[in-house]
Amino acid sequence: MTAEGEWVVACAADALEPEAALRFDHGGRTLVIARSPEGDYFAMDGHCSHEKVHLADGIVDGYIIECPKHFGAFDYRTGEARVPPACIDLRTYEVKVEGDNVFVKI
């Protein structure tokens, strides 16, 4: 996770249902924002480490997001690559909800 940075609005809190994800682009970076079954929000780098496919287009199941191209999978809470061909972990980012918005620390 980032130690320093600025908080930016990533999306409206009601933009994501539990077990869903969306793409967020900011400052030349692509992130994926995911919502857990309990309703918590998480953010990590948005491209699969295998072939740079957008993870927001993949399937979210529990705490796992699956790449839509070769079905590699990541734990969106930790960025850990969980299913090959994904083998490089992704960076995660701090997230907070204030009012009606989800913020990510970039």
Account of the 3D structure:
The protein has one domain: Rieske Iron-sulfur Protein (3-layer Sandwich). Helices cover 0% and strands 45% of the residues. The model has no long low-confidence stretch (mean pLDDT 94). The chain is an all-beta fold. It starts with 6 loop residues before the first strand and ends with a strand. The strands form 3 sheets. The protein has a 4-stranded antiparallel sheet, with no helix packed on it. The protein has a 4-stranded antiparallel sheet with strand order 5-6-7-8, with no helix packed on it. The protein has no helices and 11 strands. The protein is globular and about 40 Å long. A hairpin with a 5-residue loop joins β7 and β8. InterPro entries: MocE_2FeS, Rieske_2Fe-2S, Rieske_2Fe-2S_sf. This is Rieske family ferredoxin. It holds the Pfam family Rieske. Residues 8-104 form the Rieske domain. GO terms for molecular function: 2 iron, 2 sulfur cluster binding; metal ion binding.
User: Which radius of gyration do the C-alpha atoms yield?
Assistant: 13 Å
Helix content: under 10%
Architecture in CATH?
3-layer Sandwich
What's the main sheet like?
4 strands, antiparallel
Report the total helices.
Answer: 0
Total beta strands? 11
Superfamily at the CATH H level?
Rieske [2Fe-2S] iron-sulphur domain
pLDDT averaged over residues: 94
Cα-to-Cα separation, first versus last residue: 9 Å
Order of helices and strands: EEEEEEEEEEE
Broad CATH class: Mainly Beta
**Order of strands side by side in the largest beta sheet?**
2-3-4-9
Overall outline: globular
Number of domains: 1
Which class of secondary structure composition applies to the elements? mainly beta
**Beta-strand content bin:** over 45%
Low-pLDDT windows of residues? none
The CATH topology turns out to be Rieske Iron-sulfur Protein
Pfam family, one: Rieske
Keywords: 2Fe-2S, Iron, Iron-sulfur, Metal-binding
GO molecular function: 2 iron, 2 sulfur cluster binding; metal ion binding
Protein name: Rieske family ferredoxin
